[in-house]
Amino acid sequence: MNELNIVLISIISLFFILLIIKHLTKSQKICAICSATALTWISLLILNFLGYFQNKMIITLLMGMTLLGIYYIVEKSVRKELLFFRLPFLLTLISVFYSLISEISNLIAGLKILAPLWLIFALIYLYRTNEKINIFTSNVIKCCRDW
Predict the structure, then answer these.
(1) Of the four listed, 1, 36, 102, 143, which is most buried by Cβ atoms within 10 Å?
(2) Domain extents for the chain?
(3) Nearest 10 degrees: CA dihedral of 136, 109, 91, 131?
(4) DSSP letter for each residue of the chain
């Protein structure tokens, strides 16, 4: 059986198991698809570190799905004005997830770019009451909604 089929069967199996758990516990906080995907890539990443699974492309595809899921969950749950920080937040997630599949030194190297970016965004955010800066921050917040 090829690696893709193993991954698909894993996600399908975990999906139904988690769906049953969700039903039995009456939990609304568990997304069976997201959890099945995350559990699969976490398992594959562990197997990769142990030398039993070498297809990093499948792992990274699944990690990307989780990364985007986290991004959307946070986007839905924060106050509107904090959506201004979408770019640094997304890039931070990418850096963290990339360091999981590569080396932690990549995260440290990424921080050299991310720290100043977060600082710039924080300073702009602090001065958002200024009319010109407010126009800019409003446009950044509307960026992903108005297309």
Answers:
(1) 36
(2) 1-56, 78-147
(3) -10
(4) --HHHHHHHHHHHHHHHHHHHHHHHT-SS--HHHHHHHHHHHHHHHHHHTTS---HHHHHHHHHHHHHHHHHHHHHHS-GGGGGGHHHHHHHHHHHHHHHHS-HHHHHHHHHHHHHHHHHHHHHHHTTTSHHHHHHHHHHHHTTT--
